[in-house]
Amino acid sequence: MGEGISLSRRRALFGAAGLAGAGVVGATAAACSDDPKPISASAPPGMVPFHGARQAGITTDAQDRLAFAAFDVTAGTTREALRDLIVGWSTAAARMAAGQPVADDEAAPQAPPRDTGEAIGLTAGNLTITFGVGPSLFDERFGLAARRPAALAEIPPMPGDNLDPLRSHGDLCVQACADDPQVAFHAVRNLRRLAQGAAVLRWFQLGFGRTSTTSDSQATPRNLMGFKDGTNNIKREDAASLDKHVWVGADGDQAWMRGGTYLVTRRVRMLLESWDRDYLRDQENVFGRVKGSGAPLGAAQEFDPVPLTAKDASGELVVPEDAHVRLAAPATNNGATILRRGYSYTDGVNQATGQLDAGLFFIAFQRDPRTGFIPVQRRLATQDALNEYIQHTSSAVFAIPPGVRDEKDSWASALFAT
């Protein structure tokens, strides 16, 4: 375990009950990018283009706020009605990303407004809206079973999971990110209104304080445990790594997904009251990093390589065997690499325990979850010292198609092509 107190001692100090959880994919998991060129090259400041080869909100500079929603298509909705919904969502998303209301014309005084109005007077706030489809969409309802990619399979159960089915899964997903929380909320709220009669909201998550960086221009943020998060994430400037680890290539088994990616979400509750009572040295051993600087243990600077083989004078590994940074590193996972884009969250108080319901809403993009998230998380769930302080409470996976070419196109249009 290195220099910190042992796992058994931590359990004795803080109580094993309620501290067991599942691992969270680590700070060294790699990241990727979705914008083919910098925002400033194709849009005014504060505005991210909706149209392009890739969907925005993947490698776009991570914004400060998140509104994430999963939807279920309602019973009786036809394939044509689902297609109409997707077209309508695409048109509305393009307008909102440009800082415009969903519709220019106002409804008659005796009819509901066409836009909910809470974003009037606000800027676009670098809003990005990213759409995806879940495995359940490919059942018998819409004749899409033959077009389900092999990589789009539900995440298997992991040791320590305590998943709420009402916060997991979904037919469709919407990820809205912005620098203004009201702009992000406005986007999801209006898309939900447009879905009336065709899809219903299954679950919804707000997030604040990005927990990763997706560009060389961004400083590494901190998670709610006080540690820098996402230091070794892939950056959008690293096109070669994105092509290798994030974007579905020409060899993808479904043509409609080539150029797209896959999204995994996990709601990870942090047991902050227990964490806040732990010693600093033990906290650093849990993560494998210095809390202040973010440097790996045994290194000087944040971005120094993690010294995985280094030992101290007593022959102990400087970075403990169960340190999060070690277990999540691509070097110890046969090169498995993902693009992280998560956010902190707080949902008030857990009524059962009287403790904060807060933590990480984990978001990761990858070329194939079967070779990305799943093997890394399976290892973390059984070995990570961080498990003592976290618990996974929701899980979902979605296919994220490539971008919307222009105003005549819509997201997932190739999925419905005859």
The gross shape turns out to be globular
What separation lies between the terminal Cα atoms?
Answer: 58 Å
Mean pLDDT: 90
**Most strands sheet:** 9 strands, antiparallel
Tally of extended strands? 9
Radius of gyration: 21 Å
Name the helicity range. Answer: 10-25%
**Beta-strand share of residues:** 15-25%
User: Helical stretch count?
Assistant: 8
Find the structural class using helix and strand composition.
alpha+beta
Q: How many structural units, i.e. domains?
A: 1
* Order of H and E elements: HEHEEHEHEHHHEEEHE
Low-confidence stretches: 1-41
Textual characterization of the structure:
- With 418 residues, this protein is an alpha+beta fold.
- The chain has one domain.
- 18% of the residues lie in helices and 18% in strands.
- The protein has helices spanning 7-14, 79-97, 181-194, 239-245, 272-275, 280-287, 324-328, 373-383; strands at 65-73, 128-133, 172-178, 199-210, 261-270, 339-340, 343-350, 355-366, 390-400.
- Strands 1, 2, 3, 4, 5, 6, 7, 8 and 9 form a nine-stranded antiparallel beta sheet that branches.
- A hairpin with a 4-residue loop joins strand 7 and strand 8 (355-366).
- The protein is globular.
Please provide a brief summary of the model.
The protein is α+β, with helices and mostly antiparallel strands and 418 residues long.
Task: Give the SSE layout.
Elements: H1 7-14, E1 65-73, H2 79-97, E2 128-133, E3 172-178, H3 181-194, E4 199-210, H4 239-245, E5 261-270, H5 272-275, H6 280-287, H7 324-328, E6 339-340, E7 343-350, E8 355-366, H8 373-383, E9 390-400
Antiparallel strand pairs: 1-3, 1-4, 2-3, 4-7, 5-8, 5-9, 6-8, 7-8
Helix pairs in contact: 2-3
